[in-house]
Amino acid sequence: MPKPIPGELTFVAPRGAKPPRHLADLTAAERREAVVELGEKPFRADQLSRQYFSRLAAAPDEWTDIPAASRTKLAEGLLPELMSVVRNVSCDDDATRKTLWKLFDGVLVESVLMRYPDRVTMCISSQAGCGMNCPFCATGQAGLTRNLSTAEIVEQIAAGMRSIKNGEFGADASGEAGAVRLSNVVFMGMGEPLANYKRVIAAIRRLTDPAPGGFGLSQRGITVSTVGLVPAINRLADEEMSVRLAVSLHAPDDELRDTLVPVNTRWRVAEVLDAAWAYAERSGRRISIEYALIKDINDQAWRADLLGRLLKNHRAHVNLIPLNPTPGSKWTASRPEDEREFVRQLKLHGVPVTVRDTRGQEIDGACGQLAAAG
Ligand code: SAH
């Protein structure tokens, strides 16, 4: 993949060979049809779904409620292996684990599991690479390889849940490692989720549909992060879901945002925020405004003041992210005193603000560092 030229945007992913069809690609009705096509009774679709989504049993020999002869047929027809682990890397005392996956066509993507005292969050990828070309983001600098299928997105979470279930992640020897259930999913890995809209929405349905149709996660525990594709934000509002929307703003003024988030040349700050407020209204959820603090670029007190003016009296929360280093970038994180002043300015406007931890930084697993280099 050649490095994109500055400002270049890629909305439509190149087409390649399609990943094999998988149970998680299909709705409940489609699963029944698929099972019948394989020569099985329709109710086997529910049995298989229960094994995959509720019991996390990917291996056919665990499906004791299904006759052995049917197991092989169903496994081959509906549960092909979509991805394999190239490697896992951990840090933060094993509370953060990044996995590099190889997909059926050799394409590489990454996901990150993070354990906190009260929850386990998984950060997943929606595309291999990204077409949005933000200059401070390692994924953006690599360009867009392809969209992930619904099942390739869902499988990342299924794999995370299986790891937790098998005791490979989520508990330490003392048993004091905190939460052991995966409850939160953030679309903050590789890719622009709203540029792979249909598959991402279908994946959210699989994550949140009750068993046996899906994993039964709460929509409130899911965050979709976007550079600000306004028509897609409006579409998302029409889905009537209660997933959280995060907007990667990074600058309150169009002049600077045009350079940091090139899609701003299509949809301006004011348009993006209007769409976000409409989403907040429909979903009942506060918008998370993502702002990577970059030294001497977007961290001035006047920009914090301007941001505060834009956000005050709206349903928003600012997540400041100290810039994580990426290869070849000349930018670094803000000085501590500038970060403090930025926070202070926002608070003067009554805007809630938190500074995100730099989880996974030492394994290149933090925000904007996912590059999936083999
Ligand atoms: N494409 C979506 C999903 C990726 S989320 C989006 O941009 O929202 C990844 C988040 O990390 C985004 O807010 C992104 O802007 C931010 N990010 C990217 N590079 C970063 C870096 N080097 N340091 C800190 N945050 C970064």
Unreliable parts: none
Compute the CA-based radius of gyration: 21 Å
| Class derived from helix and strand content | alpha/beta
Proportion of residues in extended strands:
15-25%
The overall strand count is 12
**DSSP helical segment count:** 11
Apparent shape: elongated
Distance between the termini: 14 Å
Sheet bearing the most strands, described? 10 strands, mixed
Cofactor: [4Fe-4S] cluster
Active site: 110 (proton acceptor), 367 (s-methylcysteine intermediate)
Domain Radical SAM core: 116-362
Subcellular location: Cytoplasm
Can you give a write-up of this model?
Belongs to the radical SAM superfamily. RlmN family. Its main location: cytoplasm. Keywords: 4Fe-4S, Cytoplasm, Disulfide bond, Iron, Iron-sulfur, Metal-binding, Methyltransferase, rRNA processing, S-adenosyl-L-methionine, Transferase, tRNA processing. Helix content is 32%, strand content 18%. The chain is built from eleven helices and twelve strands. The chain has a ten-stranded mixed beta sheet. A hairpin with a 4-residue loop joins strand 3 and strand 4. The protein is elongated. The model has no long low-confidence stretch (mean pLDDT 94). The structure holds S-adenosyl-L-homocysteine. The site of S-adenosyl-L-homocysteine (SAH) has 19 residues, from strand 8 and strand 10. The site of S-adenosyl-L-homocysteine has 19 residues, from strand 8 and strand 10.
Summary of the model, kept short:
The chain has helices at residues 28-37, 43-54, 68-78, 138-141, 150-165, 197-208, 230-238, 254-260, 269-283, 301-311, 336-348; strands spanning 83-91, 96-103, 108-115, 120-123, 127-129, 144-147, 182-187, 222-226, 244-248, 287-293, 316-322, 353-355.
